[in-house]
Amino acid sequence: MLLLLVQFADEFTAFNVFRYITFRTGGALITAAFIVFLFGPTIIDSLRVRQGRGQPIRADGPQTHFKKAGTPTMGGLMILSGILGSALLWSNLSSVYVWTVLMVTVGFGAIGFYDDYLKVTKQSDDGFSGKSRLVMEFLIAGFAAWIIMRAGEAPFSSSLTFPFFKELLLNLGIFFIPFAAFVIVGAGNAVNLTDGLDGLATVPVMVAAASFGVIAYLSGNAIFADYLQIHFVPGTGELAVLLGAVIGAGLGFLWFNAPPAAIFMGDTGSLALGGLIGTIAVATKHEIVLAIIGGLFVVEIFSVIIQVAVFKMTGQRVFLMAPIHHHFEKKGWTESQVVIRFWIIAVMLALVGLSTLKLR
To answer: What pLDDT is recorded for position 259?
Structure first.
């Protein structure tokens, strides 16, 4: 919205700064953090009153988790309010990519909200039907993939790119839509499974957002894309502004989510944030790099898949508890040790992922 001030730059030259994505990214970060800081306490108090006993604690979980009983969930509402408010203020609202990413974010957030609502009202871990939830996620993600494919230039818009190879492309044609939908849904659920400890998912999401902010800015800039020999995707630079809002909202939320957490993110936030990152990876043609930068999320979701598959086939468990962060808790790591060590892994993986921009 503030981009409209550029038309008055002839009279007020200071308004020229709104042309620059870097300036608006910084503004989006600060604004999102301010919104969460400002409205966070009110939202927490409101959710605490309405939820009563708060998020149910898994009966088979680590014993240390039972002291968290009564903590409200749906904290993703704080994050989403910061992202949406900041994005609408600082983003170029004529960008199809911005609206597509926001559509997925809100859509996945709504699914997560309903899941959280059912868990709180039933005081049970059983929320939204898994199959129904996945169907709705794939419908939203598939529609977003179709928009992204139509927004680009064929055949590149329906092609899969590969890190380390500047010319290698695999044109998926119409199959790009289910592939992209799988990436978006997978990212959403991977972040959702990672959100099991105070601050565990928040910082890796911010790290991924910062990484893809760099990728989006470079991919959307013809000069930088040519210099780095990465694929130029016109219009995706604007997504850096949106990712700045994600970082700001994450910082604001972490203030309240730091141990002992005053509120949990819930599926409302984790599903929305994962879907947002996944959609941006698809838009910037860095789906494979997402698996590197978001490697922590990949390990978390695969730990659940492996645990379930092996248990069904053999009756044995590979991990003491899944997702894998609970396995390490069962082995004696404190919650803070798990969280900080996983943060370190997330940063290291992000650096590896960013290195693919130059190693061509």
So the answer is: 78
Q: Exposure of 11 by Cβ count < 10 A (0-12 exposed, 13-18 middle, 19+ buried)?
A: exposed
pLDDT score recorded for residue 121: 82
The count of structural domains within the chain is 1
320 within domain boundaries = yes
Tokens representing 167? 């010319």
Residue with the two structure tokens 């390490």: 328
Beta bridge partners of 171: 159
CA distances from 30 to 5, 76, 322 (A): 19, 18, 36
What integer pLDDT is reported at residue 56 of this predicted model? 63
Measured CA to CA, the distance from residue 176 to residue 70 in angstroms comes to 44
* Single-letter code of the amino acid located at 176: F
Whether 27 is in a domain gets the answer yes
Residue type, 20: Y
Cβ neighbours of residue 344 under 8 Å, at least 6 residues apart?
none
pLDDT of residue 196: 82
Give the DSSP per-residue string, 240-287: HHHHHHHHHHHHHHHHHHSSSPSS--HHHHHHHHHHHHHHHHHHTT-H
Domain annotation covers residue 273: yes
Q: How far apart are CA 65 and CA 71, in angstroms?
A: 11
The ranges of the chain with pLDDT < 70 are: 1-15, 52-69, 124-127, 360
CB 48 within 8 A of CB 240: no
pLDDT of res. 7: 56
pLDDT at position 198 is 83
157 domain residue, yes or no: yes
